[in-house]
Amino acid sequence: MGLLAGTGHPEDYRHNGRLKSSAYDKEMERLQEQLVLLQYWVQTQGLKVLVIFEGRGSAGKAGVSKPITERTSPRCVRLVALPQRSDRQRTQ
After folding, report:
1. What's the predicted TM-score (pTM) here?
2. Measured distance CA(29)–CA(50) in Å, rounded
């Protein structure tokens, strides 16, 4: 089901079971607002958060990171692409 579960109303889904774009956009906006609130809370508490996405090339990591960083403050949220691991690092 994933993060974007919709409202559970049958009218939010297409005949093939996929979530309609309008329901997706509405839920994405709600989740992004919650993420901004979380960002402010983490900042006021003096905390730090690290999120790591690991996966094969073209696994969708960039597609996931864009909505996450879209509405957050670039002063608080940093996106770093790490280089591929070396052969030595892979064996450890």
Report:
1. 0.69
2. 22
